[in-house]
Amino acid sequence: MTSHRLVIAEKPSVAASIAAALGVKEKKDGYIEGGGYLISWCVGHLVELADAAAYGEQYKKWSYESLPILPEEWQYTVAADKEKQFKILKELMHRADVSEVVNACDAGREGELIFRFVYDVAKCNKPMRRLWISSMEDATIKAGFADLKDGRDYDALYASALCRAKADWIIGINATRLFSCLYHKTLNVGRVQTPTLKMLVDRGEAISHFKKEKYYHVRLGFSGAEAVNERISDKGKADALKAACEAETAVCISLTKEKKTAAPPRLFDLTSLQREANKIYGYTAKQTLDLAQTLYEKRLLTYPRTDSAFLTDDMEDTAAKTVTMLSGKLPFMEGAEFTPDVSRTLDSSKVSDHHAIIPTMELAKTDPAALPESERNILTLAGARLIFAAAEPHIFEAVTAVFSCAGTEFTARGKTVLAGGWKDLERRYRATLKGKPDPEDMEEENTLPELSEGQTFESPTAKVTEHFTTPPKPHNEATLLSAMERAGNGDTNPDAERRGLGTPATRAAVIEKLVKSGFAERKGKQLIPTQNGAALVSVLPDMLTSPQLTAEWENNLTQIAKGAADAGDFMQRIEAMMRELVKENTAADKSKAVFTGGEEKPSVGKCPRCGSPVHEGKKNFYCSNRDCAFTMWKNDRFFEERKVAFTPKIAAALLKSGKANVKGLYSPKTGKTYDGTVVLADTGGKYVNYKIELPKKK
């Protein structure tokens, strides 16, 4: 019997790329076979932690008394629509001719979790190997298979992934149920989501409490230069200074010239790519991640879920070849003079799991014009960044001249470019964009005339300009991603472990969930907290809203992944925090929060599963809690067979007492109608069941 190596990828498209690289061609139901390989795939998260209801009947309904829910033995579930693929994987794992299983899921924390959940729930005990690669090119895949790692080398990474999943479950389930029960409204609370919301609310409050103030500048004009004084809050004083200056002599009291260098930018990690794509193209963080993932699966971009802005030292040759290829491939580089130096993009000590995001050599064989515009934009952006990073520094001379006039100092600043370097290339790239370049990124050259210390200017021209202080700007995706990345960094030195809210891979989903839950909304590029978002933050304790605390947890997870912290200790702290939370929050604080929505729609009753209001839709009666699946369909076969309309009156009775007296029920057996009692027989599944209560025998 020929032994086979079973390879499990995260998605069908990745499995297809691996099969193509290894020359495996025979397609079967749910896997590809050939050359001693069986190559199959998960469909994202095939196996997940079970919902609270799996731990006992008492958790089917949301109630304060049942909290906290802290599983001792964790239960797992396979999503109903993914059962077929799980069954295929399980059968393949247990095939007698399978000698070992290769985890080829994405090389990161979540990829490890996806594979291990399937491996464990399928009760597989075959030897486990790990494919750990950063791009999907044929050569990289082959090299990865020639250097497979022992799967157990990644046990610490799995431990951190499992802690992340369990901590999110414990905080999400308990805090959401606790505050939803107290305030009689579905209030989604999350380990990373809620502190992120707090950032949006804090910024919103800073804007609403901002008081605009008027101020003035006096500006002196010389031949080809303008010098400005410090701000003056009083118009009369500004006018008096202007008049005094026009009648006096201005003297240049200091002149400093400083040669400065703006180093080329670093390569992209996922967060910086998302920020730049938001600034330039207006893409959301999720759109950028999805586009980068698609390009990765098309083998045109390296692995996107990375937190490193460097390449490994052994990639010098690859980087140099890629830069040369890009210089001929990207239209904005046509005719540009460019001598690349990739050495400053290399630093193995700053790469943990995956190197920075760059295009692959596969692009040499691809026509970028054939790609969808959005994919082409991301690929060009990543390619342009690699070119800038390998270009010469931007060198300029900064000149600062200080003048004295009427007993007041005025300052003029100038900038003379000595070597354009990478900024010349960036200007070329920006010129190809449809939108206008960002003024913050495109500083103009401003040359001052020849000046010397002691030089005098008789009766200079003077003018007063009026200005207003400006409030902080609302967050957009770019600034919020930066804030999430920096959260908790304030008290640590720059060399400390990166803290931050969430990981590069999860931040986009967190922002999307805030919008979907109705706690934040998009207005153009801006992200604004809603009234419900502000109200939720106001009723929650610091332990749930503090970005510093949550950043500490994320740091703990990173340490667990490195084997430098204990998973058990981390989980004990999370459980203790939940017990404390439930103990300290026993009643709603109505003075703090006013929640909108939900109440505006008439309710037909309370959900038997979670206690939230049930509303009437066009085709159904549905629970207002987006995390609860309870729905009663008006066209349910039970009522259609009995030829009665499923009215709001029947729905209200079923929700109130679990029973409804209904007249004119049709019997398919006898062809007659009768009056009877319909009972709600909800088992907590996807569909709600009903039955007829038989009259009790006398």
Automatic annotation (TrEMBL):
Record InterPro entries: Topo_IA (IPR000380), Topo_IA_2 (IPR003601), Topo_IA_AS (IPR023406), Topo_IA_cen (IPR013497), Topo_IA_cen_sub1 (IPR013824), Topo_IA_cen_sub2 (IPR013825), Topo_IA_cen_sub3 (IPR013826), Topo_IA_core_domain (IPR023405)
Classification via PROSITE patterns: TOPO_IA_1, TOPO_IA_2, TOPRIM
Sorted UniProt keywords: DNA-binding, Isomerase, Magnesium, Metal-binding, Topoisomerase
GO cellular component: a single term: cytoplasmic replication fork
Catalytic activity line of the entry: ATP-independent breakage of single-stranded DNA, followed by passage and rejoining
SUPFAM superfamilies assigned to the protein according to its UniProt record, in alphabetical order: Prokaryotic type I DNA topoisomerase
GO MF term set: DNA binding; DNA topoisomerase type I (single strand cut, ATP-independent) activity; metal ion binding
Pfam families found in the cross-reference section: Topoisom_bac, Toprim
All residue ranges annotated as the Topo IA-type catalytic domain in the record: 154-582
One annotated GO biological process: DNA topological change
Residue ranges of every copy of the Toprim domain listed in the record: 4-137
SMART domains in the record: TOP1Ac, TOP1Bc, TOPRIM
EC number in record: 5.6.2.1
Region (Disordered): 434-473
Family of the protein in this entry: Belongs to the type IA topoisomerase family.
PANTHER family with a match to the protein in the record: DNA TOPOISOMERASE 3-ALPHA, PROKARYOTIC DNA TOPOISOMERASE
Protein name: DNA topoisomerase
Source organism per UniProt: Lactonifactor longoviformis DSM 17459
